[in-house]
Every structure is written in structure tokens, then in C-alpha cells.
């Protein structure tokens, strides 16, 4: 189905997998962005909220828990037979932050999507990646009809560190999304180089 | 998940239903012993002899589904969960069982900080450009 059908007796290719997160407020276009570049229709994977932190075999107390499902949409880009990039849309609501920790572990980097009409919706994501030193860039999703502001104004409104790239993008447009993802990887490379220098120098 | 006999045996109360039912497949276990949490992009690969999975009566239908999907092509944990419509936690436990029974092995993703050099990241950039 995905990585090229394996002939019997011939070992299947076991790809290296990487992930980039797509964060931002509810309805900012995360799934649209994933869908614009994914080779598969964005898939939905779910986790039950009550599972978090439960010890093995412990089902006591389950009966009094409220159950909630956290859904994450994700897409896949097969860059080479042996190299696959996954894009994960982070759950929009802040109460699902425990999922973010799991998602961001080992992530190459993140795109924080922002909408100039509701800029404050992405503050939480910016904070989150800053605090955990995960390389990210901000993509301002240019919605039709939304006011356009100069890049510097948006930067200031978000109080972004100088090193954090910010670009205008269109989550529906494949080329624009490719640009944003390349930006994340480049930023992650520069970030890693800086860190190495800080350690050795 | 199928709505077969398993789903109808209401040994739990209604309110607990959505929590307990998927975990009935794992016999109540919410994590796999002796294993780290499997990353969503960890790749599950069927072992060459995994053809015997159907004949193994210790395995549930969901175990067999996982082996079959992975036999076609290696699958990430996230894809297995989406494909089988199971919560990620359930898939983790089931995959853990299959690893113990040596039907599959799991390739854990390399954290970017531990990549030996930048060449993979350059490959990612080039791959994205070529899309």
C-alpha cells in the first residue's frame, strides 16, 4: 500500500521516518495544510483522554471518568522509498496539551499557523515550542478577506524572537505549503548548528 | 473495531463504555510491559515467518489485522491506528504483544538531535522541492 509492495522472500524497505507538527488555533487551516501536500487524504487517529498516565492493568476509577477522544489528523509524504515525512496537526484545544508532549517528542520542527483576525489563538503554540526549544516557524495563513499586515507588525504582535522565521502562506496551496515545510527543515538545521556551536565553542 | 459479541457483553456500565470497550482487546492493559512508549511514527515491520499469525490462537483478530497490514508494507503506529480505527494506546499494546511473540519488529525513529549528520535533512529539503 505505501512503501512499494514487497515480494515474498525479499525484505521490505524499512524507511526512516520523520515528523513535522502543524499547530495553531482551532479552524486556522491545519488539516487543510496537511491535505495540500500529503499523498494520502489526511488520516485521523484518535486517543482516549482517560488513558493518559494510567498505570498498567489499573482500571479502577474508570467508571467515574469523563471520556473524551482526542483526534489528530495526519498526512504522509514519501520523499524516497526509504525516507518518509509525516505531518501531524496538533489538537486545537488547549486541554489536549498532554498529547502535544507526545507529538513533539522527536519532531524535526513545527509550523505554527496564524490567522491575523485571531492572532491570539496561536500564542499558546508559540509559547509551547519556545519553552521546549523545538524549532518552529510561523506561517500567517492568508485567508481571503482577512486584513494583510506587514510582516514586521505581525512579528511584533507575536513578540517573536529574532531567529524565528515568519512567512505569509496559503494553507490550500501546495507550493506555498512546500515552501513553509522547507523553511522549517532549514530552520531546524540552522538551529542544530547553533546548538552544536554553543556546546563546542 | 467490529460490533460483534465482544461489544454486546455489557460487563461495564454505559458511562464507562467508550473507555473500556477498546481496552477489552488488550485485556485491560493500557501499556505494554518492558517497552518504551512506541512513537506514532515508529515503523512496524512483519517478520518473514509472520504468515503463521492466523494459525496462532493466542492472537486476537486485531493482532492478525496488524500483522497482515504490516506484511503488505511496513506501517507506522499512527497509520495502523487510523487504518484499524483503534485508539493509539490500544495499537501500542497490541504491537507490543506481537513484538513479544516475534511476529513483528519495530524501528524506532531517530530523534533529529541524534542524526549522525545533516545529510538526511538535506535529503528532506531536496525531496520536498521535488514534490
UniProtKB/TrEMBL annotation, chain A:
Cross-referenced SUPFAM superfamilies: P-loop containing nucleoside triphosphate hydrolases
Domain of life: Bacteria
Signal peptide as annotated in the record: none
Entry keyword annotation includes Nucleotide-binding: yes
InterPro entries: Gliding_Motility_GTPase (IPR052705), Gpn (IPR004130), P-loop_NTPase (IPR027417)
A UniProt-annotated Pfam family: ATP_bind_1
Keywords tagged on the record: GTP-binding, Hydrolase, Nucleotide-binding
Family: Belongs to the GPN-loop GTPase family.
Protein name listed in UniProt: ATP/GTP-binding protein
Automatic annotation (TrEMBL), chain B:
InterPro entries named in the record: DUF742
Pfam families: DUF742
Phylogenetic lineage: Bacteria, Bacillati, Actinomycetota, Actinomycetes, Kitasatosporales
Source superkingdom: Bacteria
The protein, known as: DUF742 domain-containing protein
Organism: Streptomyces levis
Amino acid at each position: 500500500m505505501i512503501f512499494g509492495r514487497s515480494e515474498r522472500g525479499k525484505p521490505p524497505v524499512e524507511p526512516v521516518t520523520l515528523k513535522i507538527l502543524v499547530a495553531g488555533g482551532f479552524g486556522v487551516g491545519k488539516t487543510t495544510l496537511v491535505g495540500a501536500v500529503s499523498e494520502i487524504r489526511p488520516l485521523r487517529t484518535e486517543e482516549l483522554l482517560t488513558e493518559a498516565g494510567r498505570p498498567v492493568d489499573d482500571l479502577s476509577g474508570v467508571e467515574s471518568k469523563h471520556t473524551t477522544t482526542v483526534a489528530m489528523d495526519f498526512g504522509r509524504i514519501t520523499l524516497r522509498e526509504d525516507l518518509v515525512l509525516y505531518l501531524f496537526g496538533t489538537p486545537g484545544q488547549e486541554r489536549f496539551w498532554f498529547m502535544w508532549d507526545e507529538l513533539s517528542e522527536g519532531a524535526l520542527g513545527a509550523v505554527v499557523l496564524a490567522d491575523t483576525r485571531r492572532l491570539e489563538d496561536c500564542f499558546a503554540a508559540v509559547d509551547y515550542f519556545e519553552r521546549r526549544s523545538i524549532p518552529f516557524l510561523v506561517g500567517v495563513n492568508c485567508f481571503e478577506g482577512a486584513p494583510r499586515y506587514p510582516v514586521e507588525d505581525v512579528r511584533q504582535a507575536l513578540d517573536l524572537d529574532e531567529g524565528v522565521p515568519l512567512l505569509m502562506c496559503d494553507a490550500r496551496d501546495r507550493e506555498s505549503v512546500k515552501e513553509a515545510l522547507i523553511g522549517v527543515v532549514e530552520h531546524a538545521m540552522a538551529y542544530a548548528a547553533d546548538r552544536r556551536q554553543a556546546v563546542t565553542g | 473495531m467490529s460490533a460483534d459479541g465482544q461489544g454486546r457483553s455489557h460487563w461495564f456500565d454505559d458511562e464507562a463504555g467508550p473507555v473500556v470497550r477498546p481496552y477489552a482487546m488488550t485485556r485491560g492493559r493500557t501499556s505494554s510491559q518492558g517497552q518504551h512508549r512506541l512513537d506514532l511514527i515508529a515503523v512496524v515491520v512483519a517478520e518473514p515467518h509472520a504468515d503463521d499469525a492466523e494459525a496462532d490462537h493466542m492472537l486476537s483478530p486485531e493482532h492478525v489485522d496488524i500483522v497482515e497490514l504490516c506484511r503488505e508494507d511496513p506501517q507506522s503506529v499512527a497509520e495502523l491506528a487510523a487504518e484499524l480505527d483503534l485508539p493509539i494506546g490500544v495499537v501500542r499494546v497490541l504491537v507490543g504483544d506481537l513484538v513479544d511473540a516475534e511476529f513483528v519488529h519495530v524501528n524506532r525513529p531517530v530523534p533529529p538531535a541524534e542524526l549522525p549528520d545533516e545529510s538526511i535533512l538535506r535529503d528532506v529539503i531536496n525531496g520536498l522541492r521535488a514534490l
